[in-house]
Design brief:
The chain is of the alpha+beta class and 270 residues long. It has a domain at 40-207. Helices cover 24% and strands 28% of the residues. It has helices at 17-25, 41-45, 158-167, 209-212, 223-229, 234-243, 248-267; strands at residues 68-76, 80-88, 91-97, 108-118, 126-128, 136-148, 169-176, 180-189, 193-198. Strands 1-2-3-4-9-8-7-6 form an eight-stranded antiparallel barrel. Helix 5 packs antiparallel against helix 6.
């Protein structure tokens, strides 16, 4: 008759809930020390600057008296969105707005807070390579200056920005080419989810400026033209073209024809 051998006891410790929790807490790999970058540590951690043309993150110091900058970058990454950035204490505070800022006060736009970006990013227009964080075409859609609004209706400084950010309701004015007037960012859930809302003033409008003003503020190009000039992949070029409104190519051609005429008029003797 065959004999049954006793089951061999495993030398591996039992997988208890306590051990599983310890594994989750243990780091899987040692991360580089990014403390020198302060608020830009997360920005730098996500990017490979030997591959992407984006600028490395270093905080800047604002010259006394210089107004605060803002920029809005149209970005066709995994999804189309508009990166809304406000200068504060040497970096650009950033929110991703999926459907673009709207000048219509009745429209509340979701704005998801992302990592702060360096000031040099305000000049970036081009293509982030495929496989890199945020890979896709980037357009400088609007830019200008901004300031917080104090409770008594005056323009405030950076301490006022800190106070309102802690409160979760940042009221401000914009002076850009496409966006202007009084706005508010209101935190709605957790620490990252906000709403971007236009206040009622002389700059309020029901106009869809993503359609009527689709071109880059600095190059006058469409998304497709930016992608093509930067050597985008065929897939990125296709996605960039799809991000342009149907009237954008005609608008670009009209703008290109208008510039020589404007130069000719300026050259005429008075």
């Amino acid at each position: 008759m065959a004999t049954t051998r006793p089951a061999r006891k495993s030398s591996k410790p039992a997988d208890t809930p306590k051990r599983r929790a310890a594994r989750r807490r243990a780091p899987t790999a040692e991360l580089p020390d990014l403390s020198q970058y302060g608020q830009l540590a997360e920005y730098n951690r996500k990017r490979h600057f030997g591959v992407t043309p984006e600028p490395p993150g270093q905080a800047s110091r604002r010259e006394a008296g210089r107004p605060l900058q803002f920029v809005v970058q149209k970005h066709r990454a995994s999804r189309l969105h508009y990166d809304f950035r406000l200068e504060h204490r040497g970096v650009m505070l950033s929110w991703a707005v999926p459907k673009a800022p709207s000048p219509d006060p009745s429209v509340k736009r979701l704005a998801m807070e992302t990592e702060p970006h360096p000031m040099d990013y305000n000049q970036f227009e081009g293509v982030i390579p495929e496989g890199e964080y945020g890979g896709g075409t980037v357009m400088i859609w609007d830019k200008g200056f901004w300031a917080p609004i104090t409770p008594d209706g005056q323009l405030g400084g950076e301490d006022e920005i800190d106070r309102q950010l802690r409160k979760g309701e940042l009221k401000f004015v914009l002076l850009g080419e496409k966006l202007a007037g009084s706005w508010v960012l209101v935190r709605t859930r957790g620490t990252r989810q906000w709403l971007l809302i236009k206040h009622r003033d002389q700059y309020a409008s029901a106009e869809d400026i993503t359609v009527t003003k689709p071109l880059s503020l600095v190059s006058g190009r469409t998304m497709a033209e930016i992608a093509q000039a930067a050597g985008a992949s065929p897939r990125q070029l296709q996605l960039a073209a799809a991000a342009d409104p149907a009237a954008a190519p005609a608008a670009a051609a009209t703008s290109a024809r208008a510039k020589p005429r404007a130069r000719a008029r300026a050259a005429r003797p008075s």
